[in-house]
Design brief:
The protein is globular. Helix content is 8%, strand content 41%. It has 3 helices and 47 strands. By secondary structure, the protein is mostly beta strands. Strand 44 and strand 45 (577-586) form a beta hairpin. The strands form 6 sheets. It has a 14-stranded mixed β-sheet, with helices on one face. A 13-stranded mixed β-sheet has the order 5-8-11-14-17-20-23-26-29-32-35-38-39.
Length: 624
Amino acid sequence: MYCICSCTLIATKTAKMRKQLLFTLLLFAMCYFSAHAQVSVGTSTYTTLKAAFDAINAGTHTGSITINITGSTTETATAELAASGVGSASYTSILIKPTVAGVTISGSISGGALVNLNGADNVTIDGRVGTNDTRQLTFTNTTTTTLSAVIRLSSTATPGLGATKNVVQYCNISGGISSTTAIIYGIYAGGTTISTTGAATDNDTLSFTNNAIQRVHTAIYSRGTSSANPNDSLVIADNVLGADVTTDFIALNGVQVTNTTKINISRNRIFNIISSGSNACVAVNLSAGGNSNVFISSNIIRDITNTTTGNFRGGQGIFISGTGSVNAIITNNLIYGLQGHGSGTSTNNAWGIIVGGGNNYNIHYNTVISSGVGTATGSVDRSGCILLNSASSTGVSLLNNNLINTRVPGNTSSGATYCIFSSISAANLGNSNNNNFFVTGTRARVGNITATDQIVLADWRTASGKDANSLSVNPRFTGAAQFSVSSASTLLNAGTPVAAVTTDILGVTRSLTTPTIGAYENALDIIDASVLATYTLGSLALNYSANHVVRARVLNAGSTNLTNLPVTLSITGANTFSNGQTISSLAPGDSVTVSFASFTPTTDGTNTVTVSVGNDADNSNNSK
């Protein structure tokens, strides 16, 4: 009996142990795959994006495919997707999306790309979870090896086998280093190899939107085979190209496009392109030509700088060139903060907009500020807002541009700065009117036409025969880094309607009869009173008989007239005293000294004296 029971008991325990072991193994497997299976396609799971692509290339998944990124991956080799029809690959479309926030696909892929769409069509990489507007998917290639990329779209050598109808949107994209010598691209659309002149065959209908790209040599690169065989249809819009952290800056180009037709570069923020190399750094670089039907609109471009003092190069906003009819519209752009070391070759220098060649450019409603002091140079350096560099260009229209030139050249004896420098003759210049040419400084000029400086607007009008309705006035910007104009600006209602431009840089509808000159249509007034200084004796005798008067200097740092502004003196500590005064009127930029009622201390001790104004647009300067 006991033996039988004992055997029965042992058998029961063994069964339980087996169940427990199986459960443990199952739990381990679930945890292992949960930790390592970060990519799913249907019911299949993979540890890397490359493994998922390999399965698609092998024909494991076909038709309309969704790749879900469920966790971060580390790629040890390029995740390369072949074109449908190549090998066993057979699909109609592919969507790549994260299912959780904050996932990263990373690797150190030298001399290649982290991700390559090799002739692949109809692929969308969407970094959103759901349909919100937050970037939740990051691609990082940490390599510092030159001629590498983060995301690559490549064509084969056979015409018609380009990477077409592809979208990269709402992604964070980062390289391994910001360097002019380690050439790393954020998004690279080219041919069979990565190079600085890599050309693609039929990389058509590409869209790169709402991405944030940093720590690369060039943020977005696209190049077709030739002007006769260009890429067709490229959208680069709503991206953030640049960073505020020094190590994450872009080293040379924000956008670089060559041999492409139907280009839309709009609403991007391109900033902090800081170079120490031998080339000019450019926010929007279409200088190599071969482009046509170009639309560059509503971009904010700032702080583009070449820091070296030996290479004679500057920072540039938009550089576009071509042969024949480029047919470009450049409108509603804000460009400022361009710096560098001046050269005797004008196209090397800091300019807001450069037209290097070709015909038919409509340059309308831009606000370009050329400011600062050029690095000292022995060259006859010329820089400024707009450079029309080709004498053979025709069909150039300049309307409603707000051109501000306060820059000091690096060569203060023979260099000069310009609102507009035109190698195009007066006869070929085309329509130029309703612009604002504002200059200050002994070496600042309104313009130069066919090698002759035109110091003031009257000179330019006589030499060019243009700009009868243009102005040369202080634009009355709203603030130091806010380039809307105030309600006191004479640029309001001073433009001329342009049928093709119906909104401004913010999407505000333009007036159909009297639009505003510059990128911003509506006035924006900022109320900002600043207490500059408080004047009081450091110490006073008790029962001081001279009736000490505290004074303060108050500045109108805003853009609109201040009326009946209350200013308050408060003394606390050993003694208590307060008094209020009112400034009846104070114009923008003006300051005034306010005297308060006399104060006589009655108690020995330390006192704190504060003068303040009320809350306004900037509360950091409201008391002293």
